[in-house]
Amino acid sequence: MPRTHLVLDAAFTVGPVRRRLFGGFVEHLGRHVYDGIHEPAHETADEHGFRKDVIELVKELGVSAIRYPGGNFVSGYKWEDGVGPVDQRPRRLDLAWHSTETNEVGLHEFQHWLDQVDSELMLAVNLGTRGTQEAIELLEYANIDAGTALSEYRRSNGRQEPFAITMWCLGNEMDGPWQLGHKNAEDYGKLAAMTAKAMRQIQPDLELVACGSSGASMPTFGEWERTVLEHAYDDVDYISAHAYYEEDGDMASFLASGVNMDHFIKTVTTAADHVQAQKKSDKRIDISFDEWNVWSISKWNEQQKTFELQDWPVAPRLLEDVYTVADAVVVGGLLISLLRHADRVASASLAQLVNVIGPIMTEPGGPAWRQTTFFPFSLTSKLANGTSLQVKASGDTVDGGKYGEVPVVDSAATIGDGTAAVFLVNRHQTESTTVTIDLAGIGADGEVRAEGIWEDDVHLVNDLSDTERVGLRTNETVRREGDTVTIELPPVSWTAVSIG
Length: 500
Ligand code: AHR
Description:
By secondary structure, the protein is an alpha/beta fold. The chain has helices at about 50-60, 105-115, 130-145, 150-155, 185-200, 225-230, 250-255, 255-280, 295-305, 325-340, 375-385; strands spanning about 5-10, 15, 25, 65-70, 90-95, 100, 120-125, 165-170, 205-210, 240-245, 285-295, 345-350, 360, 370, 385-390, 390-395, 395-400, 405, 410-415, 420-425, 435-440, 450-455, 475, 480, 485-490, 495-500.
């Protein structure tokens, strides 16, 4: 049986675990908003039409900041369409997803929903088909108290106090040729800098995110970040990163997706630090990893080919990936990568939340349920507190497909107030593996528990026919003797060990 030994020491810290690391993302896309979080005819709907059963699941998931309203959608969006009397709002073509946007839900309604789920709004502005002027108008509408045309307009729409939105995304994936208003790095960097400067004239303490690359495989990856930041370094706080992974017939590589995420983070921080050095700046730019998940992009590419030009449906079933146990293990592994880089990843958003590549699914008039990926996210969000630690790991390796030989076990650890948590993935496809954890350096006493996700059939899913087929399981093999914890991890598994 492969073996791994981990040493934890409170002196070797990565950085604080910021709550924004456990963010989410809600885009006007498919059945995410309409027939997802919002379904006025559903028996659980509140007075604004939001499903309370979904609200409960989102709370249980433990998401912090939620990015909104896109995604590709935002690059063609007019925020003004989503405010004012609902029955007077225009229906528009959504070019990004070839759908009809009814605008029944806009900023006010979404903020109401966020108040129910207790999450912070991270708002994206349209720098695709629109620009600086519309961004500062939205900021005036949202954040100015009173006494100007747009702040008074907000008040007349029923919201007296400002929305007080702190974190703003300056566009979405502007490096992608699929994006409405796609730009080269020079043009986008200048636009981002100009927009950020204007926004800061209204409110200097905003936290602004410039678009980074929409994937590590983009031909401009690295160079894009450098060029954008050469223009916008002084004006923004974060550079975004987006990454999606899929099984695609190669389970070994899929299980090692965290290696790719590590590389992604290292490349982006290197590019940012290069510009910092060039500019002799004291300021550091960190990452907003504001889209990450498992997503079967190849299935989506096939689905797109079936679209008819004349069809513009409302809330069609798009990107409704049904997640397997293996997908959940990879999601848990990606969270491990994010925790390992808690010093440079200031914020991250699981993309997305409900129905659309989401950990939560719903049926119109029917139930809402947890997908497999729900479990590693909710448990990590709950247990990862305090400070992320560097884990000193030694042990066996396994074939990681296109990433070469990789450690059998991937791990991250956090320590809080007298508590600790260790997150583990066994990437071996056929063998269990033994892990020993040396806790002498962290001084955490108390009960040791281990919960995780694994099944003999790694392709098991939760779906409408059985919404609770897969869930968290207790790993009964965990033992503590003095300062050493020993646990056996089943093949293709994700586990969280909590201490104290
Ligand atoms: O999350 C789905 C889409 O993926 C987003 O709209 C876009 O930003 C990315 O390409």
